[in-house]
Amino acid sequence: MSAETVERLAIDAVVAGGAVHQGIALAVEPLPEADIQDLVHAAARLEPAVVVVLDQVTDPHNIGAVMRSAAAFGALGMIVTDRHAPGETGTLAKAASGALECVLLVRAVNLARAVDELKAAGFWIAGLAGDAPITLAAAKLSGRIALVLGAEGEGMRRLTRERCDLLVRLPQTDAVESLNVSNAAAVALYEMFRR
User: Fold this and answer.
1) Residue partners of 115: CB distance under 8 A and separation at least 6
2) CA of 4: how far to CAs of 13, 17, 26, 47, in Å?
3) What is the DSSP letter of 151?
4) At what angle do helices 181-193 and 60-72 cross, to 10 degrees?
5) In whole angstroms, what is the distance from residue 150 CA to residue 159 CA?
6) Which ranges of 26-121 would DSSP assign to H, the alpha helix?
7) How far apart are CA 27 and CA 112, in angstroms?
8) How far apart are CA 148 and CA 128, in angstroms?
9) Helices in 73-125 by DSSP H: which ranges?
10) Is 187 in contact with 170 (CB distance < 8 Å)?
């Protein structure tokens, strides 16, 4: 396909409503879909390997920001729920700032089953929870780790939480109840990366 110069209104007509396009649009094929086994095979060649699991995080800005942090701190991939997470939209892609192309994104129909598959592949499952008895730093995690974060307010669902091998928290003051999920992911991924 060749480049074509058009009026800005023509681009406005073909991109999603309100999308910021800066006067450029490109027709591309969708990224290939990944599954749990793609993550497992990629992790087989890596030690350590980190995968981020998001339990019902629905905001595309947050998912994109978590993906960007995952790329920055070397996470192999990210698992989101199939039904309650947004698609790979322009909003998510913009928030991810290129991370969609380098971090495997897996959509799981059943998140608990996906976590079980990671366990069977040798991953330790660490859930981030404000009420956890130990900090992430004190846990001294190594090897293959799946870091699970829940939706803001609700946290992880019961079945997801029960499948965690351990629960860890980030140390913080009492000034706020919790961090935004994308901020918590960035801090946690940095902590895991610096080891």
Assistant:
1) 53, 125, 146, 148, 160, 163, 164
2) 15, 21, 10, 46
3) B
4) 10
5) 12
6) 36-43, 60-72, 90-96, 111-120
7) 36
8) 6
9) 90-96, 111-120
10) yes
| H or E segment to which residue 138 belongs | helix 136-139
3-state secondary structure of 21: coil
Low-confidence ranges of the chain (pLDDT < 70): 1, 16-21, 30, 32
Q: To 10 degrees, the CA torsion angle through 101, 185, 80, 150?
A: -170
pTM: 0.86
Distance CA 151, CA 166 (A): 18
Q: How far apart are CA 31 and CA 165, in angstroms?
A: 32
- Length in residues, the chain: 195
Q: Which numeric CATH code is attached to 30-193?
A: 3.40.1280.10
**Alpha-carbon torsion angle 144, 156, 30, 42, nearest 10:** 10
Q: Which two tokens stand for residue 45?
A: 């060649």
Phi-psi sector, 174: left (phi>0), alpha (psi -120 to 50), beta? alpha
Backbone angles phi, psi at 46, to 5 degrees: -125, 145
Question: 74-128, pLDDT tens digit by residue?
Answer: 999 999 998 877 777 777 778 888 888 888 899 999 999 999 999 999 999 999 9
Tokens of 82: 């199939």
Q: Token pair 């003051």 is at which residue?
A: 173
